[in-house]
Amino acid sequence: MDEGQNKGRLASWMTKENLKIFGIVNLGTLLLSVGVYFFKFPNHFTTGGVSGISIILGKFFPNISSATFVAAINIILLILGFLFIGRSFGILTAYCSLMYSLETWLFEWLFPMDAPFTDQPLLELCFAIFLPAVGSALLFNYNASSGGTDIVAMILKKYSSIGDIGKALMISDSLIAVSSCFIFGMQVGMFSLLGLFLKSFVVDSVVENINLCKCFFIITTKPDEINDYVIHKLHHSSTILHATGGYSHTEEKVVMVACRRREAVWLRQVSKRIDPHSFMLITNSSEIIGKGFLAV
């Protein structure tokens, strides 16, 4: 392959959208690493997953750090993922898993932590849950993950008849969190269990807010003017429905539009300016699939 072909492939990959995805994925991995190393590890919050297993192993093998265990387990799981799942395993997941392992190891080398930042475990738990949750949500938004137990889930899904793998992983994470009650004491164990149950809610909430859009149903007598604004200013399309007023029995039109949150403010103002008597229903939606929104 000559130099021209290599440059062409590089140029085709380095698009604005791909660079954006690369930057967001790296930000998500960094937030995950910061939350795990600076807040989970010093407080021994074992909220499941690879980090939880690593904290427990670090207790039994004090000469080996938790960050080293994270790297070792992730590498083993990555190898298993490629062996059992193959190329469909996902380049982004492999990259994020390696970066997560590398960053926790670098933090350990650059900023050794002998104790938590504060003597407030509840405050530390908030950061231990929120930072990794935001990081994981950013990764999930681009069909990536930090590997770990997600790889186990993918292997089980392909080769086993387990019906609900998510529930099986939740049970295993719960067992890891419960075990911390006996290894690190009841207080740490209770904080770990609390963190485990909060984690899924925070991740779901962040994912929904990242993709949150607005759906408009505008009942108006001036649909063409509103549609013109949607097409030429917001660069979206709309669906115009025929409707009849239940009380007035007059013929009207309903303009159905999906748009982003910042665009919703403009559309609401312009619609009222075009037709002051328009009636609008505005709802939230975190999953709009199609051109201009999420890919299928």
What can you tell me about this protein's structure?
- The chain is α+β, with helices and mostly antiparallel strands and about 300 residues long.
- It is about 65% helix and about 10% strand.
- It folds into two domains: about 5-210, no CATH class; about 215-285, Alpha-Beta Plaits (2-Layer Sandwich).
- It is built from eleven helices and four strands, in the order αααααααααβαββαβ.
- Strands 2-3-1-4 form a four-stranded antiparallel sheet.
- Strand 2 and strand 3 form a beta hairpin.
- The protein is elongated, with a radius of gyration of 25 Å.
* Strand arrangement, major sheet: 2-3-1-4
Low-confidence stretches: none
Strand proportion: 5-15%
Evaluate the radius of gyration.
Answer: 25 Å
Would you tell me the overall average pLDDT? Answer: 84
Topology:
Layout: H1 3-13, H2 16-43, H3 49-60, H4 66-84, H5 91-110, H6 121-140, H7 149-159, H8 165-183, H9 186-210, E1 213-220, H10 223-232, E2 239-244, E3 251-260, H11 261-274, E4 279-285
Antiparallel strand pairs: 1-3, 1-4, 2-3
Question: Could you list some keywords that capture this structure?
Answer:
296 residues, alpha+beta, Alpha-Beta Plaits, 2 domains, 4-stranded antiparallel sheet, 11 helices, 64% helix
Brief description of this entry?
This protein has 296 residues and is of the alpha+beta class. The protein has 11 helices and 4 strands.
